[in-house]
From TrEMBL:
Residues 7-154 form the FAD-dependent urate hydroxylase HpyO/Asp monooxygenase CreE-like FAD/NAD(P)-binding domain. This is FAD/NAD(P)-binding protein. SUPFAM superfamilies: FAD/NAD(P)-binding domain. Transmembrane segments: none annotated. It comes from the Bacteria.
Amino acid sequence: MIYDVIVVGSGFSAIAVTCNLIEQLPASAKVAVVGDDPGFGRGTAYRTELYLHRLNVPAGRMSLLPHHPDDFVDWLKSHGGQLQAGDFASRGDYGLYVRNTLARLLRKREGRCRVDFIKAKAAGCVERYTSTLAFHLGNGDEIAGRNVVLCLGVGNANLPVDPAGAPPFLRSRIVENPWRLSWLRRVAPSDAVCILGSGLTMIDQVLALRAHGHRGRIDVLSRRGLAPLGHARTPPAPLPIDVHALPATISGLLKILREKSREVADWRSVMDGLRPVTQALWQRLTNEERARFLRHALPWWNIHRHRVAPEVFAGFEKLVSDGTVRFHAGFLRSLEAREGRLVADYRIRAKREIAEIKADWLVNCTGMERAGISHSPLLKEMNRFHLIVPDPLGLGIQVDAASEVTGTSRISPARLFAVGALTAGQFWEITAVPDIRVQAKAVAEEIVRARLKSNA
């Protein structure tokens, strides 16, 4: 079958694009959504049921559709929640909201486009019939589309060392995917836990351990030993920032931002002032400056920009202050089993000295891998046929300002878009809901506009 639009993926980006298409396309249009994730639309982040796992963005900025800004807060209230726009909802509730929003749109059968959900993995893509892109599916079928939107997310980053050759005992105590929360039931209350990585995922797993009765020591090892900071309970007003008045070099930018942070009562006002202009600022940087940012400034950007809910931060800080959670800055060198325990050897940052952490469990919280091509067999196949082009910094694939894939040697007039993490090379700040929902709406509008023009 030939579809007007094929949406490839099953995470938040896919559901955001699909909802916008349902709202905008006429009844004569046909949409296929291809993905094999049973938790369609919830993804890794919003599948958790643990109430302690909170959103890192206030509820008032988390509505799925940007033109209905109060939708999520209204949904929470209609389901018995007492949260206000400035509060931080649970991730589990947000996952339910996203699924319910899609279901509500699908229930409006009269006048809406046809939507087929195909539970299969897209294994390959080719140009077909001179006017479409066709996908080979893992179930043996093939579908084709005049417009395609790639909404492929990213997976967990691999461990810094390969545990494949480790003895069975050691491998059984390594948690490579911490979001499969069944591992928590196997942890004894007094077990020592070593967590690799010190970002948002680390905080989530520390709180999950405590909620499951763990009271043992937790050692956190990361390259710089930095942890995310917290949102203010009373957020300061964002500082207006003229992006065109800022220098286009990382060193110049950091100097200006440090000066502005010293001039205001709360540095958060500077970071929140940057939020609406971050994409424009990124697009002013050369590839050399972007690479310099990734090498030198990214860890500090992450802890200041991607903050945690105030109550979550307060609980975590208490565990740090009482010594339950200890931070180590260094580079993991090896893992081995000694005397019935797991031992992580690491080189201390800025030193040649080697230290070790003894633990009963090792948990991989090194975050999500960058949205490059190598993590996806489909993207590797599309790259091989020159249907997509890698971003030069490994930040996904090349797209233009309208999120349309560029630089390919395709001959078909079929249009290919990408939404979400795959477009970080063009937009940088494109992994959080407030940014993705705007991008998803814009891509849907462009597809509808072009369809109307071609049918005129």
